[in-house]
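Q: For a teaching handout, I want to show students what a protein-ligand complex looks like in token form. Below are the inputs, and the small molecule is magnesium ion. Please produce the holo structure.
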Amino acid sequence: MKRTIALVGNPNSGKTSIFNELTGSTQYVGNWPGVTIEKKEGTLRKNKHIKLVDLPGVYSLSPYSPEEIVTRDYLVSKEVDLIVNIVDGTNLERNLYLTSQLMETGTPVIIALNMIDAVKRSGASIDSDKLSLLLGMPVIETSAVKGTGLENLVNTIADEHVTASKQFEYSPEVESALSGITALLPDAIAQHARRWHAIKLFERDQNVLIRMQLSDEVKNKIEHIIATTEASLDDTSEGIITNDRYFAISNIVSQCSIQAKIQGKLTSSDKIDKVVTNRWIAIPIFFVVMWGIYYIAIQGIGELTIGWMEWLFADFIGANIRLLLESAGTSAWLTNLVVEGLIGGVGSVLSFVPQMMILFFFLSLMEDSGYMARVAFIMDRVFRKFGLSGKSFIPMLIGTGCSVPAIMASRTIENLRDRRMTVMLVPFIPCGAKLPVFALLTASFFSGSAWVASSMYLIGIIMVIISGIVLKRTKAFAGESAPFVMELPSYHMPRIKQVAIHMWERSKMFIKKAGTIIALASVLIWIAQSIDWTFASADPSQSILASVGKILAPLFVPLGFGTWQATVAIITGLMAKETVVSTLQIVLGTNGADIIGLHDVFSPLSAYAFMIFILLAAPCIAAIGATYNEMKSKRWTFAAVLFQTSVAYIMALFVFQFGSLLIR
Ligand code: GDP
Ligand code: MG
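A: Here is the structure, written as tokens, with magnesium ion included.
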């Protein structure tokens, strides 16, 4: 028979790391809270009959946030045979609060006392045997990163004799109230779940109350019991329960752990944080870091790899395939379609893959070391000043890779208005697919300056803030933002394996896109630019593509790029942002860094305005789809796209017109 094991724990306690180790999958591990939003399933590597479920991280089982609701509903309603509670050993007291609630679900619990390496390194120690005795459940010391204790954990999971743990004892007044309520529960509630339901009713948990459909008589009796206990202990029932739990936990913790932190002594994490989260220099440091990354990706490595990649696609693959096709007697038209359209278009995008990989490498490094969580923390300070929710910044950080998962990550924002706003503003953050556009244009107009490319990052963030301030003043978005509480995970040396997996997972998506959607788009664009409406072959400027581009091109004249070539690049960019590059390559018939055709359609100023437009305008179709999924409304999705495109238009207009004045 198949058994189901749920992994439950606080955010950032290492659930996904353990899940990956035990199942051999490569789910996303992130060094900040809120990375796992939906539950993920897998089977144990060593025993296919055991199903493992990775749940979103929660601090408690009181349903205050979407993650808590997903986790709790799953634990209570579905058949879970065993809960593996991942406890962050460096934060024992807070983590055990959740444990105390898990014990009450009536499902057997075992503890994986994780991060044991970090506990030992800090000089602290935890007596896990004693902890096991006091809690009445197996406690296994683990380190997901070092791989220690995992075998032991697997054996304990596979052991079917682990039974429901002993119950958590409350003060005598509460215990007598609980037995009073338990006696009133309907018979339909199974024996093992009765205590949990009694506690939830005592806490006046509305979700549970509504679901149980008790008669008014029973409800009144229960309310009477609660009110009596509240009067005698002089606190709300929820407060009483919480206090009791904390009291018992701190008692347990003091019995089995020795803290290392001597008063006043700073850990090295604290020392680094004093600098990188400093009120005055935190943001400058962040931009220096981003600039450095763009410098290496675009200016440093880029200049090298672009040459190689150009050689690979144009001189090697393109030229040889042309020879091959010609010698096979293929028509000139088809040969050109394959070489100029398909290979040229796909190649122009793939040329930027090494640079994208460098960008992703550094982003993963920043994330895994714990620095990204600090960025979210400092941005929260800025955002809050403007009345925005700091929680929006985590989706924005994810958006540096791709807007689609970023839009999905906004699901962790409880407040509907803030969530909608985040979904609308996330695409302003330059995603990986926009990098080729920036790299191409900075290479041809600004000698590859990292300043120009990284300024896109700055403009993206500034536009998020300005739009946020403006939108908050409208009726649809007004209102208090939910407070954002996030603990900073401690720094650790990034693990190369983890960073490599991230980098590869992100890059793979782009390579896949180049082979599918961009290949298809390149072929269609090549055809559309080589025939006219009578389907006769034609000069590009008389082609179907040109005639379509020319209809909309006048709109972009005030922005400095009102040519049909730029216009069709913008339109095809809706499929995927890399298509902007492949389209320009096909319609201008150029390649790589020294593009003469580009200089016919752009000036440095209009190229910059064009980059701003691509940065801010409607994202690709996949991101629009994700927006629709989160908004669940066509009107809101349309409003988002319209808003983004209008902001893009206004900003590009402003930059081009103002810039023209200055340059003259
Ligand atoms: P989740 O949010 O609970 O799913 O946690 P993750 O698995 O995403 O891990 C959060 C962070 O803690 C990541 O940076 C992991 O590399 C790190 N981590 C996980 N387990 C351990 C461990 O045993 N020791 C140490 N030092 N770090 C760990
Ligand atoms: Mg996770």
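A: Two things your students might notice: The two ends are 78 Å apart (CA to CA). Residues 9, 11-17, 29-31, 35-36, 57, 114-115, 117-118, 143-145, 368, 489, 492, 498 surround guanosine-5'-diphosphate (ligand 1) (CB under 6 Å).
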